[in-house]
């Protein structure tokens, strides 16, 4: 069955970086794009960007440009999302999610379990 | 502030029918399909409805989705205690060029 398993909770200091992993299984890794999203405490979901698991090309939300890097390792079917220059407002649960379809007919069908990142001095 | 607007809470008694609304604009709901997710506390979101009104296999037919203009709705009939969860809507926004979400609706089964 399809699974996206994320790395464990992280605590980081302001100004530091954090890297979250998302290991995929149960499907052909290179056939799907993976999106990253986050949910701050008491807030709605926020889309951060997407990575093509095959070619590795990315598209980031404008507000995260220059601060977020998404990569993938095809040999281990693992995706990574790194956020740098952390600030307290980056405290959130971070999710990876697989997207099916494209354009108007796209939707997220499987999600990782989430990774809590706490930014605190 | 979420781009898509949902009521923060909804409630019903077992067996009742409840609807949750999701309001957007011409650049998101008005021109793209809507998806709905259920999220139990501390767990990953689960796909409930996709492409406005399609149910994935395994989702009971008690759950249904609809859309009209720039608004969408999720209906849950025959409410059960296990339906108590957060529900949120999602759509692609062609003007912002990214996915947008509702703030979520917490459903309580009384």
Outline the fold blueprint.
The complex is a heterodimer of chains A (121) and B (110).
Chain A: E1 3-6, E2 10-12, E3 18-25, E4 33-39, E5 45-52, E6 58-60, E7 68-73, E8 78-83, E9 92-100, E10 107-111, E11 115-119
Parallel strand pairs in A: 2-11
Antiparallel strand pairs in A: 1-3, 3-8, 4-5, 4-9, 5-6, 7-8, 9-10, 9-11
Chain B: E1 9-12, E2 18-23, E3 34-39, E4 46-49, E5 63-68, E6 71-76, E7 85-93, E8 98-101, E9 105-109
Parallel strand pairs in B: 1-9
Antiparallel strand pairs in B: 2-6, 3-4, 3-7, 5-6, 7-8, 7-9
Question: Which terms summarize this structure?
Answer:
heterodimer, A: 121 residues, mainly beta, seven-stranded mixed sheet, four-stranded antiparallel sheet, 11 strands, B: 110 residues, six-stranded mixed sheet, three-stranded antiparallel sheet, 9 strands, 45% strand, globular
**DSSP strand tally of chain A:** 11
- β-strand amount of chain A: over 45%
Order of helices and strands of chain B: EEEEEEEEE
Structural class of chain B: mainly beta
Assembly state here? heterodimer
Largest sheet of chain B: 6 strands, mixed
Distance linking N and C termini of chain B: 28 Å
| Amount of beta strand of chain B | over 45%
Helical stretch count of chain B? Answer: 0
Residue windows where pLDDT falls under 50 for at least 5 positions of chain A: none
The helicity of chain A comes to under 10%
């Amino acid at each position: 069955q399809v699974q996206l398993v994320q790395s464990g909770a992280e605590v980081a200091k302001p100004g530091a970086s954090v890297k979250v992993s998302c290991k995929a299984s149960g499907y052909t890794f290179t056939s799907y794009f993976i999106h990253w999203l986050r949910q701050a405490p008491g807030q709605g979901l926020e889309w951060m960007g997407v990575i093509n698991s095959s070619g590795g090309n990315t598209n980031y939300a404008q507000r995260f440009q220059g601060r977020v890097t998404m990569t993938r390792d095809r040999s281990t079917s693992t995706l990574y999302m790194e956020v740098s220059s952390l600030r307290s407002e980056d405290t959130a649960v971070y999710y990876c999610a697989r997207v099916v379809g494209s354009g108007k007919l796209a939707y997220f069908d499987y999600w990782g379990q989430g990774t809590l990142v706490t930014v605190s001095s | 502030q979420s781009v898509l607007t949902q009521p923060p809470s909804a409630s019903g008694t077992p067996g009742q029918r409840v609807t949750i609304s999701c309001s957007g604009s011409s650049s998101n709901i008005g021109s793209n399909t809507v998806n709905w997710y259920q999220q139990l506390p501390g767990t990953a979101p689960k796909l409930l409805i996709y492409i406005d009104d399609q149910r994935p296999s395994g989702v009971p037919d008690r759950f249904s989705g609809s859309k009209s203009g720039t608004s969408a709705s999720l209906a849950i009939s025959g409410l059960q205690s296990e339906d108590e969860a957060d529900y949120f809507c999602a759509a692609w926004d062609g003007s912002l060029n990214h996915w947008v979400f509702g703030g979520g609706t917490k459903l309580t089964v009384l």
